[in-house]
Amino acid sequence: MNTADKLARYVLPTYSRFSVSPVRGEGTLLWDAQGNRYLDFCSGLATCTLGHGDNALSRAIARQAGELIHCCNLYQIDKQAELAECLVEECLELQGRVFFSNSGAESNDGLVKLARRFGKLGSGGSDESRHEIITFHQSFHGRTLGGIAATAQSKVKEGFDPLLPGFYHSPLNDLDSLASTIGPDTCAIMLEPIQGEGGIHLATPEFLRGVQELCQKNDLLLLLDEVQCGLGRTGDMAGWRSIEPNLTPDAVSWAKGLGGGFPVGAFWISDRLTSQNKPLFELLGAGSHGSTFGGSPLACSAALAVLREVIDKNLPQRAIEHGQKIRMTIEGWQHHALTEVRGKGLLLGVGLHAGAFEAPEGTPASIYLSTELAKAGLLAPPAGPDTVRLMPPLTVSNEEIHESLEIFRHTLDRVCH
Ligand SMILES: Cc1ncc(COP(=O)(O)O)c(C=O)c1O
After folding, report:
1. Are both 23 and 87 inside the same structural domain?
2. If pLDDT is split at 50, 70 and 90, which confidence band does 125 have?
3. Of 274, 312, 373, 414, whose CB count within 10 A is highest?
4. What ligand 1 atom has the least distance to the C-alpha of 192?
5. pTM of the predicted model as reported, rounded to 2 decimal places
């Protein structure tokens, strides 16, 4: 049985997979068992920050694996302390405390638990408990029960009801709708500054400022899901600052790029004071939350190696420059099959005119184009039916960008009317 047959025979069919089967990687490149070479502009869905086989990351993992892989959170974990310090002092430059999880969905569940505890405090002198959270159309916050309730895209919720109650969804970049969705039971607003899975949609600076004002006015938590857009990919260690620098969230979640491919997630909670005159992070005190694997020495060593490389080599700046190059080149084509390029840094989405593609009946343009690009040696994943994403490792070279854009252009010409 080949890999595809074995996967079909033994693994739950939850994923629709492309036929590519990589077995080895180096930098931006992947190879399959037959020696076919691919430029990886998927990066494990915005995860392989430093590309494949990075020396600093693989050495840190090997060294730590030889010293101490796991130690539970009953004990003091030095690498966890170091990583939290780096996230607070160098990535966010905002004071607060970090919790370590293993994935993006888990991190967002932590934010939801924070919001629930915050809601219990009541508001404006009233001790009436609040529990509702507003998220945005096209959002994606993960696949746990908390994550699917928070996610607005209905496809993730189908058949899993009754869902965790208390989530309302509002259109992105529409402050009036948002203001009218806020009710007496609302306690938080949660958003991706750049929506990833929903098709690379950016919150505007005005919208972000307006959300912050509404949060202040209504005593709501501002929760940012930076699982996909955080930690450098958009051009800033704090993803939202690549859109609006003057925003002060109450809590932020991360995963994906944090470990460069090693599974590790985290969330941060601000030390700002609540109505009870206590730091916000104290709402999740001893015994309120936990994870056996979260913050293990091995996961934290991997994440530290990634963050050191990203910060010390100023990869966010490179992401900005490379992103501009990609955007300008594609826009310069003025190709009739493309609508626009959206995104920031190296988190880019190329919009497609569905009608311009000779896709088989029932196949969305994005999946058709991603399949054809893969055949030509470029991995660029779809996001929704009419967007293809370009999100290479932050270490991608000029030559690799040039070659990828050549493949993109030639493939477009081959598969469009
Ligand atoms: C913005 C965002 N939040 C949460 C998640 C869920 O992360 P994970 O798959 O690590 O649980 C994702 C995954 O794509 C994401 O893009």
Report:
1. no
2. low
3. 373
4. 1
5. 0.97
